[in-house]
Structures are given as C-alpha cells and as structure tokens.
Amino acid sequence: MTPARFEPASGQKILDLGCGNRKKPNAVGMDSNPRTQADIVHSLEDAPWPLADSSFDFIYADNCIEHLDDVIGAMEEIHRILRPGGVAKIIVPYFRAHWAYNDPTHRRFFSVETFFHFDPSHPYRQLYPYSKADFKVEAIVFNETIRRGPFYEALARLANRWPTRYEQHLGHLFPLDELTFYLRALK
Predict the structure, then answer these.
(1) CA 52 to chain centre
(2) In whole angstroms, what is the distance from residue 165 CA to residue 159 CA?
(3) CATH topology for 12-146+177-185?
C-alpha cells in the first residue's frame, strides 16, 4: 500500500516520467514515445529536460529509470525540477526479480540501498559522492503495486519492516518483484 503521507495533495503540480499510455491523473506526462499520452515528448537520456527548475511538487517514475544509461544524470534532473521538499516516487524492478533480467531493455538493477547514494545523511553518500543531487530516502516499499498471494504478501510485510535483513538473508531464496522509493528533494 502507498504510504498516504507521500501522495500528492490537491493542487500540487505532478510530473509522470515515462508515462506511456497510463499517465497519472492531473499529471504532466513526459515520454520519449510520441505514440503515448505524453504532454512532452523528450528522452530522459537527453539532459537538460525541457522543464523549469523547481517546477514540480511530485514526480512519478514508474518502471522507467531502469531503462536509462545514466541514472545519476536522471536523478540530478529529477532533483533540479522538484521543488525543495518535493517527493519523487520511483518504482523499479527488484534486482533479484526474474523480470529485472528478462527484459533486454533494462540497463540498471536496484537494491534496497541504491538510492542511499543520494542521501547526504547516509554513509554511502559520504564515502561515494557521485552526485550533487540530495534526497532524503523517506520510505522503501517492496511490492507496493504487485500482489502474488498470501505467502508473498506476508514476505513483503516482513521485507518492508526489515529491508536490508530481508535482502541479505531471504531475498535470494524468496525474491520479491519490485521496489518503490519515496525520495524527498533537499536543497
């Protein structure tokens, strides 16, 4: 379930990256494919994106970041166009999921700790300052949009309570499917 505290409020400006033909209601859609519901046809690989600095309150990136060559560049663009305190909801395949690897267009894979590299309070960011984009990792949710039956729902509840422990001790035996990250833009 989506943590309610991260849903966009009424009147907030929303961007749906890689919207395809399932653009979020009341959102501006951006996609590289002109045959979609995109309001802006532009590749996420081509920075800068044709959007003003600090122009959105909430950004969805639902299963699109894993298709990019330059995830760090995309995160820097997301940070640039989010208002300070704005939220990015990023959904990606979990690196142990079979469909993370079966799609030949997937270029990147994600663990529970991937986006800590953008959180200045985390040791990863302090040791490896790859990016100038600063986000606070507010929440990590396994299988937020995927339902696979009672066993996997119980496993997801366990993984959501202890994500790193799940990944280190159970993820290789019972892999879940996707990760949703809620990232708050810091300035």
Answers:
(1) 21
(2) 8
(3) Rossmann fold (3.40.50)
